[in-house]
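Handout, section B. The chain below has 432 residues.
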Amino acid sequence: LMIRQPPRSKQGVSSAASDVYKRQGFQLCMAKLGSSSDEPCCFIVANDVESPPTSQELTQIFMKGTIDEKISGLKTLIKLIISDDGFPRLMMQVLQFLVPSDDHGLKRLLLLYWEVVDKLKADGSVKDELILACNNLRKDLLHANEFIRGKTLKLVSKLTYRSILEPLMQSILENLEHRHCYVRRNAIACLFTIYLSCGSDILGSVIDKIKDILDTETDLSTKRNAFLLLFHCNQEKAFEYLNSILENEDSLSDIGDLMQLLIIELIRKSCVAEPSEKQKYLGTVCVFAQSKSTAVLLECANTLISLSKSTNAIKLAIQCYMKLLSAQHENNIILSILSNIEDLLKTKKNAILDENMLDILNIMNNSSLEIREKAFKIIMELCNERNLAHVVEYIKKNLRKDKSSPEFANFWIRAENQLSALNPQQILKELT
């Protein structure tokens, strides 16, 4: 069993957490990469090696064993490396006897091996064996099997050393034009992590290619990643592309939810940095507000409220919230939306919300008492002489309907009592 684990500090885990892992039969394994203060924890593995072989025995398996024996030996070596800092890494033996193999199972294990093995010497320079492994990585980046290519791209994205990455750049770029979207998507993601770790100068003329990819790419996830890379590397070109989309509103709905969410996020960040750009891009958010995607609608509403104080923008945001409330069955999302509406009330937007009183009243029929309480709290803020009679009639109707449920009946009675405090005479008149 191998599970990805986020970075952990040198101090490791607490003794209590360690005891938990031991009770579950797991061993927490740390892979030391250089002299960084944070050492990534690459795997949590089942520690099932009862009598570990010596390095000489593993070398003999790598030299003379069958493919199945080599795979089993490499699995054992990976477990021993990440659980024992002093165990020999056998990098030259791996390069000499395992790397030349074309077996896909062995290749996948080698990618894990290169991930956990120590990559730096004591002086901080890259190990010579890893430089030799670059030739094998280059071959795998151009492998006929798209899965091998994609997995190798994922490995390369974790190698943050310039001396390793530079010889591989041309092979990585060739994957941008691969026929399979899985490879293209991982190539873009790999370039993005390389940019974050080494800067834009190592990418060379890649930025110009990214613009062409955005024009021709059909896979929405790859397109989204390409736009994100372009935005970080060259915001001017990113906004040129965004403007070309905005000029044709019919194409806005065809770019997919992932791309829409990214554009909304970047618009929000750009408008916060440059408030003068708000009017330019709010129209795009308004167009996205017609989306059928729950995530896009929620982001549009939140963005409109955060960027604009205009009545029209607030009305559109509330309409998005109401669409979500009427279509949602997930209680956590409903509670989140009601919390956002409560925040709107704090900005004195009662007059706008008053138009949606009926939609909020309908939420009080939800099976969750917590949601009912939250919705009624909003209703109490919106109640006035004009709509009080309608609210009372709604409560009377539901009280008769929910008499068989003591919990819900008590809720409606409490609601009546709280409303009576607002205008006792009118409440008495409506109840009689």
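Note. The CA atoms of residues 232 and 411 lie 52 Å apart. Compare this with the example in section A.
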